[in-house]
Amino acid sequence: MTATARGVGARGVDTPGRAAVGARTLRTDRWWLAPAATAAGLLVFVVYGGVRAFQQQYFFADERYLTPFYSPCVSLGCASEPGSSHFGMFLPDHPLIPYAALSLPFLLGFRLTCYYYRKAYYRSFWLAPAACAVPEPHGRQTGETRFPLVLQNVHRYFFYVAVLVSLVNTYDALVAFRHPDDGFVVGVGNLVLLANVVLLWCYTASCHSCRHVMGGRLTHFSKHPVRYWFWTRISALNTRHMFFAWITLASLILTDLYVMLVARGTITDLRLIG
Predict the structure, then answer these.
(1) Do 241 and 207 contact (CB within 8 A), yes or no?
(2) Within a 10 A sphere around the Cβ of 20, how many other Cβ atoms?
(3) Contact between residue 267 and residue 235 where contact means Cβ atoms under 8 Å apart
(4) Residue 195 buriedness (CB in 10 A; 0-12 / 13-18 / 19+)
(5) Rounded to 5 degrees, what are φ and ψ at 250?
(6) What is the CB-side half-sphere exposure of residue 87 using CA atoms within 13 A?
(7) Who contacts 37 (Cβ-Cβ below 8 Å, separation ≥6)?
(8) In 91-187, where does DSSP find H-type helix?
(9) DSSP character for 132?
C-alpha cells in the first residue's frame, strides 16, 4: 500500500509513516472481549449508582446501617431516617440533589481521573486504542495536553478528598456496631460495611498519588527511613490497584444492595452478637 493511498482520511495505524499492514488487524483472538467487558462493567456501576443516588429512599437500615452512596448524609431529607446524619443536615432536600452531594462529586472525580480508570475507559469507550495491534479510529492524538483531558492532572487533589471520605465511611462502619436501643451488636450488615471499608482503603492507599505522597521528591531514601517504609508498602499495594479498582465497584454495589434490601424489609439482618 502506497503512502498516497494511506494518506488523507486514514486513521490510526493506516496514517502515513506507519508500517504498511494490509489486514484490518493482526489479532486472531477475540480482542474485543476485554474492552466490551470493561465498558459493560463501568456502565453497570454508573447506572446503578446514579439511580440509587437519586432514589432518596432505602438508604438507612436497622437504625444504624448507612449505605456508602448516601454518606455523609447531609441533606435535610435525611431527617426522614433519624440517626442517618452523623454530621448535620444543611443541604436542601431536592430530587435533583443527592443526599450525599457533599462527597459524591469528589469521589466521581477521583475515580474518573484515576490512572487505571483512564486506561479502562480510553480503551473501552474511546477506542484509543481498543487493544494492542488493533487500528484506532482517531486520526490524531494529543494525549492529555489539551482541554478537557488536561484536567486529569487534578487527580492528586481528588486523592486528599477521597481520604477524608474514606475516614467518614470508616466512621459509619464503626458507629453501626451500636444500636440505639440494644447497645453493642454485631450483624451481617456490620461485616458487609466493614469489608467494604477495608477494600475502599486498599483502593485509596494503592493509588499512584498516595505512592507519590509517601516517597515522591525524595533524593535519598536512606535519610527518610519512615517514608521509605511506607513507600515500599504502598508500592506493593499499588501493583494490585486494578484489582481494587474493580472489586470496590462490586463491594459498593453489594453493600448498598444489602442496606436497601434490609431497609425495604425484603431480608432481615442476621444478628451474630446482641
Answers:
(1) yes
(2) 11
(3) no
(4) middle
(5) -70, -45
(6) 18
(7) none
(8) 104-112, 115-124, 155-175
(9) T
Categorize the per-residue pLDDT at 187 as very low, low, confident or very high, splitting at 50, 70 and 90: very high
122 vs 21, more confident = 122
**Which amino acid, residue 125?**
F
The DSSP element (H or E) to which 252 belongs, if any, is: helix 241-264
pLDDT digits (tens, 9 = 90+) for 127-186: 888 888 787 777 777 788 888 888 899 999 999 999 999 999 999 999 999 999 999 999
Are 48 and 61 within 8 A, CB to CB?
no
Cβ burial 94-126 (10 Å sphere, 16+ → b, else e) = eeebbbbebbbebbebbbebbbbbeebebbbee
Write the CB contacts of 66 (distance below 8 Å, at least 6 apart in sequence): 59, 60, 73, 84, 86, 172, 176, 259
